[in-house]
Structures
1.
Amino acid sequence: MASFNHFWFLSFALLLLASPLLQVARCHTESDETVQATEEASDIGIVGDDAEDFGDESFPTAPGIDTICVFPKNSARLVTAGEETELLVGVKNNGESSLKVIAIKASVHLGYDHRLLVQNLTTQVFNNGKVPASAQATFPYLFAVSKFLQPGNFDLVGTIVYEIDQNPYQSTFYNGTIEVVEAGTFLSIESVFLVTLGIALLALLGIWIHGQIQNLSKKTKRAPKVEVGTRSTDASLDEWLQGTAYTQSQVNKSKKKK
């Protein structure tokens, strides 16, 4: 049973990514008969925002109802403050009765304490959100956090409210982290830190290379030549040659000149 549920979640996630429209697809019955029906987005009966005030009222979760949530084209779950973000909510009705989706709502909380509410988000109401027994469907949900919300990590809690046999129920389809960024900001905090660290390392490398080049140029400079006088050398040479045939020939030459 666990492996079957795991397989269904994987296949249903692919379905959510592939179709932003409400789909009731391939409803398998016990006799293996397949019924396939597709409804356009205009047929799901989206009423609008806050058409009905649900307040803080909480309902139980109906047995046999599975939900899943996907952020299409936004696997990093980045939410730009003040701009709309889309997510898709998948519902699989494993029960025996038809299910009617009433609304989808969500709220933002501080990550370290869910009791600290940051913002109640839009409540999106549906008029024609039916999911037959043994069927699955996808519902779009648009929300926007306050443009004044400080960038950082927060927890998003999303809830889908539905009716079965005129009895209200609800299921939490998402309870996890989102990262809020400023409008026009394409880099996350971690990315900015990594870019800054890389620039600093490149600057240090440049300074080190410059120092090595300077040291190398100093070593290659030639040492200045020292001139040696000739007088002392000539005098010592004359003293060393005294008494030799060379000095006698020099004396004879000087006498002949006289």
Note: The helical segments are 2-18, 189-220, 231-241, 245-257.
2.
Amino acid sequence: MAPSSLSSRFHDSLTRQAFRSYLAEFISTFFYVFLVIGSSMSSRKLMADGRLLEPSSLVVGAIANAFALSSVVFLAWDISGGHVNPAVTFGRVVGGHISVSTALFYWLAQIIASVIACLFLKILVVGVHVPTYTIAVEMTGFGASMLEGVLTFGLVYTVYAAKDPKRGPLGWMGALAIGSIAGASVLAAGPFSGGSMNPACAFGSASIAGSFKNQAVYWVGPLIGAAIAGLLYDRVGYPSQTADSISGIAEGDRV
């Protein structure tokens, strides 16, 4: 790739609009993680015997995930694309919708926001442990990673469909679809792998809780699933708009 092209892409990542996008990702990821992890802490607090797994806590987690993700995606969509998830960002990179340099800044904003959100919860809610994503004893690390990958594939594929310009501008239905598949995924996989689908959320809670056990599960699987979803939707199923000759980013997806 020509040096001038690389320089142009990096310059695009340092524009005022780009920094607005990073800020939007930071804010939306912060509130997403704060609400999802906070709802888990709340449900455990209300359990008299302190059990970690109970049907009601699974439902609470799914509802919180669906509502929180729908809301923050809708809020940040027109500014940053409302990724709120390093896996979604990776999927958009693979699909050629944003540059690698921009994606790295997105990842940085998302991860820092997740850590700060979990830190806030630890400071504000004294005496309540910040929960981390764990895999069930019936699951192997490989199996859990595969499960997270399949779920993330569905999430990223839905994001692509919601953002497809052929479907018109994103309305509240698009954001609701993204949140709904996330909530359904938690119901399907919560007891087995946690249903994270979000490396930043998993990393933030693990860093504050001080336990990185099986952390690779929540990175490898989701990133692979997101990459396959991006390639399949944009290259096979529904070819995207022609990419810009300099940045390689479709005009409708520029950030």
Note: The radius of gyration is 18 Å.
